[in-house]
Each structure stands twice: as structure tokens, then as C-alpha cells.
């Protein structure tokens, strides 16, 4: 996909997007609503034409083909099952339209019904199924013609939490069993991190960062990406030196720590780093004389949020910025600190990431 | 919440509501009930009851003019309903399955304005137009009535079809296209089956409207082309016997039958939208 631009009147929904999606990959387009991810998906499906740019599938240009001419199938957000057809007729629809022989259609439909665990429901009207079952019919219908790419437009958003969790695992299983490339659209960061091989984070029609889930999470390139995915601490620091792939940055406390940075920039001067709350630990300052190198940050606890598995300590640092620490509750019983306690903050190795401006 | 609101503001509690509702039902149905009852009158009066009899149904059945007019009515109504529904289906598809553009609302209005134009105006206009054509072509068959009926039935057939199309999820057609259906196959296997109840509703509505028409038929028909309603109108000017009641009763039953069939078609819960 290269240089895709899409204008709706005066509104630019997709702004110069270039992406390469690899074969057999679970690729996720992640972003808030209105970021252009669904528009991008619809251009791959053929429901929209790009204003500019090209979409190639295995080297063949498909941007100008009609939806029915592309070896690409979609699972729609509202499933869009045909209400006048049965489960089996829905699943077999694509093959029937391709003019496949009846015996082949029947065999594939039976196989698909088994794949999505709907044995015995083939003759039922789809309107009699529950939301989760309809979801599985929609999946089977889109998978039956063996598309080269399966597009999924927020297919889990209508399901309740428990069903969504099990469908996430189900989708991942289907993807590895069928070996079909999945392009998944969602605004749910957790869903994206759970299922994807790679994620493209989008906002305002632009792709902000592409990478594996851990890269997106631990090495966000921009403030938007860091902020959109998970909880994050932002700290203003000075770059002291660049040592290979790390930069040395000086915190407000005077401590110096190493920080990674996006490959396309040379950080210098004042920059912002991100540190994930679970990469820090709150420690008591009373016991040993704290050196800035072992305990680079210190402040006062001003809020404690107990979450069962974790406790979040919101610490006000000496320079006034807020810093959140997420600590796993490894022992039972009340633990840690109370509001007003002075604390030091230790950091794990290599956890700071410099943001692009 | 909604239920509470409904309970607090139940319209049944408005003073006089029940009385007015009952009065409306009386005004609507009492005359019809009387008409049906007197169709079975043994006497020759439509106001004095002289005992139960089916003689007027038999007399209508043997009246060649009534039979001819009925057949003519049915011929015109069936052909006109089919033509009107076909046109209305195409019009409904064209006005809903397109991205909105300037002039769409205008076209939509043009389709519906015939419902508001006084029928007498249309009747006079058609009379003048058709008399010209008659002079040019020499043709004076039922074609004129069929053409006129087809035309004024289009907006009636259009309404239920359009309503059905608007309720239909556009993503269904998109899904069909995504699953390799060509535009024709999408129409054939998805749009048409789902639209079918709407088309049938349009067909029946057009049929009943055509069957019932007096004003335009009266102006457009040539001599000897009476439909059942214009024949009855002509008879009422001369002598009124319960035969008219009998014909009306049969007519009423036919309409009720159509409405009933329509009701069951449009209800069909299993095949409805999810």
C-alpha cells in the first residue's frame, strides 16, 4: 500500500499512508474513532476508492477493482449477515457467487461450520442465533472462499467482555490454522496488543508508528502513541550524550539514565521521555542514604489506588510533576505506602524512551 | 424510565378520549355494517327490512353488465398494478441506492406530488390528452384506462417499497459485493429477496387503489368501458336496489381478503430483519 490519500469533500480522512502488510500476518490498525483506520480498510475491501495512491496485493494493483473482483473478504462490524438465508447458505454465499460446484460448496461449508463450532446449526435462520454465534457465522462466511486477506472491522465491539476475550483467542487460532493474512481494525489497545503480530497506530489520517506489540508499548515513538496505549509517565529531560543506540539523559533530580530513541531522529537538548508505571518501583527513603544513581527520582505519595492485583502509587516529584508507579501485590495484606509518605523511585534497566517531537 | 413515562402520560386518561374514539368507530363502521346487512334484504328497499335472502347476490351474479364491469375492473387493476409496481420498484431503488446528490429531493417530491394533486385535475388533463391521441391513432381500447391507472398507482406502490429499502441495511449489499457477487447477482440474491415483502405490499396497494378509482376512470373511459365503481355510480342515478349493497359487499370482502393476505406477508417474523 503506497501513498494512500483519501479526501471526503474538504476532509482528508487518510493522509499519505504507506504500509506493507506481510503474508500470513495478523496486522492491526489501531486508533481512536475518526482516525481513518476504517476508511483504509474499506479501500482495501474496495468500498472506497483512494483519491491518490496505489494498493497492491501480491504485486497486482487492486485499487481500481470492484469489491467482488478482489480476493479479499470482510467481517463487518454489524456482521451484515443475510437475514433471509440460513447459517449454511450465508457461509456458502461467496462460493456460490464464485460459481463453485454444489458438492464443493457443501464440503467447505461443513468444514467452516466445524471450524467455528456451530455444528448442527447449519439449517437455522441466522436471525435465531445469539450475538456471539452470528459473529462466528460472519467469520466463517468471510473465510469460506479462502481469501488472500481477511479484513475485520471492529468485529468484537458488539460483544460483552467475556465473549470478547474468548473470541480474541478464537480469532488468533483461526488465523494460525488458516494461514490467511488478517487485517484487523480496532480502537481497543488491549485487543490490539493481545492479538497482533504487528500494529499500526493511526491518528488524524496518518500512521504514527508501526511495530510489534512490545515495540508499540515499550518504545513509543510519539507522545500520541505513548498516551493512547496504556498508562504512561512523561518526564522532561536533557540529552547529555549519545552512546551508540542509547542516549544519556539527565533527569530534573540530576541523575543520569540511558534512554532509547526512535531510529529516525538524533535527540539533542531538551526532550521528553516516557517510562511505563510498571517499570518503576517505589522504595522507602529512610533506610539507606539514597544516591541519585540508585534512586533517580523521589517525591511524596499523594494518591494510592488499590486494584487487587496491583497497587498504583501516584507520586508528586520534587519538581512538581506527577509520576505513577504500578506495583504488583506480591504479598497479601496491606503493603507499601500511605498518602503523604516520602518515597524514592527506582527504575528497571533500560526503560526510558525518548519521544519524537 | 420509558415505561414510567408511558404510565404517567397514558392517553387513555384524557377526559372524553374513549367517547370520541367510540364515536369515530361508529361513524366509520356503522354505515358499512348497515350496507352489508341490507345486502341480504329480501325486499327491494335499501331502508326497509323485509327478511333474509340471497336474491340480490344472485341477481348481481346474473347481471351481465355487472360481470363485464367486474372483469374489466380486475383486468385494469392487475395490469396497472404490475406496471406501477415495476416502475415504483425501479424508482425506489434509484432514489435510495445512490449517494445523495443535488436534485434527489426534487425527484423524490416529483414521485410523491401526484398524491397531492387533486384527482379531478389529473382526470381532466388525461381526458384532453387522450382525446387527442384517440383522434391521431384511432385506438380506443382499454389501453387508456390501463395507462392512466398505472400512472396514478406509481406513488402508492412506491411508498412501501421505499420504506422497505430504507430499513434495509446497506452493508448487506456491500457484504454481497465483498463475497464476489456481481451487481446483478447482489440484486438477484440479496436485494430482491429482502425487498419482496415491500414489492408485494406495493402491488396490493396499487391493485386496491386501481380497483377503487372513480374520478379518473369516469373521465378517461370510452362508451361501454364501465368499471365496477363507475357502473355502480351510473346505477345509483337511476334506481337503487339492494343489488348495489350486494355488489359493494362482495367488493368489500375482496379488499379485506387482500389486506389480510398483505398483513400476513408483511408480518412474517422469521424472515424479517434481525
UniProtKB/TrEMBL annotation, chain B:
Domain ABC transmembrane type-1, first and last residues per copy: 70-262
Membrane topology category: Multi-pass membrane protein
Cellular component GO terms held in the UniProt record: plasma membrane
Keyword Isomerase recorded: no
Pfam families in UniProt: BPD_transp_1
Intracellular or extracellular location(s): Cell inner membrane; Cell membrane
Transmembrane segments: 20-40, 76-96, 108-130, 142-161, 189-211, 246-265
Similarity comment: family membership: Belongs to the binding-protein-dependent transport system permease family. CysTW subfamily.
Designated name of the protein: Spermidine/putrescine transport system permease protein PotC
Classification lineage: Bacteria, Pseudomonadati, Pseudomonadota, Alphaproteobacteria, Hyphomicrobiales
Amino acid at each position: 500500500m503506497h501513498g494512500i490519500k483519501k479526501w471526503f469533500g474538504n476532509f482528508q480522512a487518510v493522509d499519505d499512508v504507506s504500509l506493507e502488510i506481510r503474508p500470513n500476518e495478523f496486522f492491526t490498525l489501531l486508533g481512536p474513532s475518526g482516525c481513518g483506520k476504517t476508511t483504509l480498510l474499506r479501500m482495501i475491501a474496495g468500498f472506497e476508492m483512494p483519491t491518490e495512491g496505489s494498493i497492491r496485493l501480491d504485486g497486482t494493483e487492486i485499487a481500481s477493482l470492484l469489491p467482488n473482483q478482489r480476493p479479499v473478504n470482510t467481517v463487518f462490524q454489524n456482521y451484515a449477515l443475510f437475514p433471509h438465508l440460513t447459517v449454511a447458505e450465508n457461509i456458502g454465499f461467496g462460493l456460490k457467487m464464485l460459481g463453485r460446484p454444489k458438492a464443493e460448496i457443501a464440503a467447505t461449508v461443513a468444514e467452516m461450520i466445524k471450524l467455528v463450532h456451530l455444528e448442527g446449526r447449519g439449517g437455522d435462520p441466522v436471525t435465531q442465533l445469539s450475538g456471539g454465534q452470528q459473529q462466528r457465522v460472519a467469520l466463517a462466511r468471510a473465510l469460506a472462499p479462502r481469501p488472500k486477506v481477511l479484513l475485520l472491522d471492529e468485529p468484537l465491539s458488539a460483544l460483552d467482555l467475556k465473549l470478547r476475550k474468548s473470541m480474541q483467542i478464537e480469532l488468533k487460532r483461526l488465523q494460525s490454522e488458516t494461514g490467511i493474512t488478517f487485517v484487523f481494525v480496532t480502537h481497543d489497545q488491549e485487543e490490539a496488543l493481545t492479538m497482533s503480530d504487528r500494529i499500526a497506530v493511526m491518528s488524524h489520517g496518518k500512521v504514527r508508528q508501526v511495530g510489534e506489540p512490545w515495540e508499540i508499548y515499550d518504545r513509543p515513538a510519539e507522545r500520541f502513541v505513548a498516551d493512547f496505549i496504556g498508562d504512561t509517565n512523561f518526564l522532561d529531560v536533557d540529552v547529555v550524550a549519545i552512546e551508540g543506540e542509547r542516549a544519556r539523559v539527565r533527569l530534573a533530580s540530576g541523575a543520569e539514565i540511558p534512554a532509547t530513541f526512535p531510529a529516525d531522529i538524533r535527540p539533542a537538548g531538551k526532550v521528553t521521555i516516557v517510562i511505563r508505571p510498571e517499570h518503576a518501583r517505589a522504595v522507602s527513603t529512610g533506610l539507606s542514604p539514597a544516591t541519585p544513581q540508585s534512586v533517580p527520582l523521589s517525591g511524596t505519595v499523594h494518591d494510592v489506588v488499590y486494584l487487587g492485583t496491583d497497587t498504583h502509587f501516584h507520586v508528586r516529584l520534587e519538581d512538581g510533576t506527577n509520576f505513577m508507579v504500578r506495583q504488583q501485590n506480591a504479598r497479601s495484606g496491606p503493603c507499601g505506602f500511605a498518602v503523604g509518605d516520602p518515597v524514592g523511585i527506582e527504575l528497571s534497566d533500560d526503560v526510558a524512551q525518548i519521544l519524537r517531537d | 424510565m420509558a415505561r414510567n413515562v408511558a404510565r404517567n402520560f397514558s392517553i387513555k386518561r384524557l377526559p372524553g378520549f374513549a367517547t370520541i374514539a367510540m364515536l369515530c368507530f361508529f361513524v366509520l363502521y356503522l354505515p358499512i355494517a348497515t350496507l352489508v346487512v341490507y345486502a341480504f334484504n329480501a325486499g327491494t328497499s335499501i331502508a326497509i327490512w323485509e327478511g333474509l335472502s340471497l336474491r340480490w347476490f344472485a341477481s348481481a351474479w346474473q347481471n351481465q353488465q355487472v360481470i363485464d364491469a367486474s372483469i374489466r375492473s380486475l383486468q385494469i387493476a392487475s395490469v396497472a398494478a404490475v406496471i406501477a409496481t415495476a416502475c415504483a420498484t425501479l424508482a425506489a431503488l434509484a432514489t435510495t441506492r445512490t449517494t445523495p446528490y443535488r436534485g434527489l429531493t426534487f425527484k423524490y417530491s416529483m414521485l410523491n406530488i401526484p398524491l397531492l394533486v387533486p384527482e379531478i385535475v389529473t382526470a381532466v388533463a388525461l381526458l384532453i390528452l387522450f382525446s387527442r391521441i384517440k383522434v391521431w391513432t384511432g385506438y380506443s381500447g382499454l389501453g387508456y384506462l390501463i395507462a392512466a391507472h398505472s400512472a396514478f398507482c406509481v406513488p402508492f406502490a412506491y411508498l412501501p417499497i421505499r420504506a422497505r429499502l430504507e430499513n434495509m441495511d446497506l452493508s448487506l449489499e456491500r457484504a454481497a459485493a465483498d463475497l464476489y457477487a456481481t451487481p446483478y447477482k447482489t440484486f438477484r440474491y440479496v436485494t430482491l429477496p429482502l425487498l419482496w415483502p415491500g414489492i408485494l405490499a406495493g402491488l396490493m396497494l396499487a391493485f386496491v387503489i386501481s380497483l377503487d378509482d372513480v374520478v379518473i376512470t369516469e373521465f378517461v373511459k370510452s362508451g361501454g368501458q364501465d368499471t365496477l365503481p363507475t357502473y355502480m355510480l351510473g346505477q345509483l342515478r337511476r334506481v337503487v336496489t339492494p343489488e348495489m349493497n350486494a355488489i359493494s359487499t362482495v367488493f368489500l370482502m375482496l379488499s379485506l381478503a387482500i389486506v389480510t393476505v398483505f398483513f400476513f406477508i408483511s408480518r412474517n417474523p422469521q424472515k424479517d430483519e434481525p
